[in-house]
Amino acid sequence: MEREQATGLTKVKLALRQPVAGRPCFELRCNLAKLGSVRVAFILDGQVARI
Description:
- The chain has 1 helix and 4 strands.
- The protein has one helix at residues 2-6; strands spanning 12-14, 25-31, 37-45, 48-50.
- The protein has a 4-stranded antiparallel beta sheet, with no helix packed on it.
- The chain is globular.
- The two termini are 14 Å apart.
């Protein structure tokens, strides 16, 4: 996650067309070395990301 934060989270995209709890749902793809590529979906609530 540190690398994605350093680059401004450029891999973030819309995950769903319909909102979740009234907010857009985004996804971020991360490369976790031994585990490989994973995707994390989240919604933003102010300064908090809810996974």
